[in-house]
Amino acid sequence: MGEVIRFISKAELKRARLIREARANYERIFPSSGPGREEPGLADGNGGQASSEP
């Protein structure tokens, strides 16, 4: 059978490129923690959130 070829407009390609560039810039400024590293306070389940216990 034939393949379906999806048309992608120039505007959509440009939008996708700009999003990729913005994400790369954000990651360069605010690097995420590496794999296996959790943010402080999240590993013990006590992420500073209020408890429902009295």
Written overview of the protein:
By secondary structure, the chain is mainly α. 37% of the residues lie in helices and 0% in strands. It is elongated and about 45 Å long. The relative contact order is 0.07.
Features:
single chain; 1 helix; mainly alpha; about 55 residues
Total number of helices: 1
* Distance, first to last CA: 65 Å
Low-confidence stretches: none
Shape: elongated
**Could you report the average pLDDT, rounded to the nearest whole number?**
78
Question: What is the string of helix and strand elements?
Answer: H
Oligomer: single chain
Main sheet overview: none
Strand content: under 5%
Summarize the structure.
The chain is mainly α and 54 residues long. It has one helix and no strands.
Ordered list of secondary-structure elements with their pairings:
Blueprint: H1 10-29
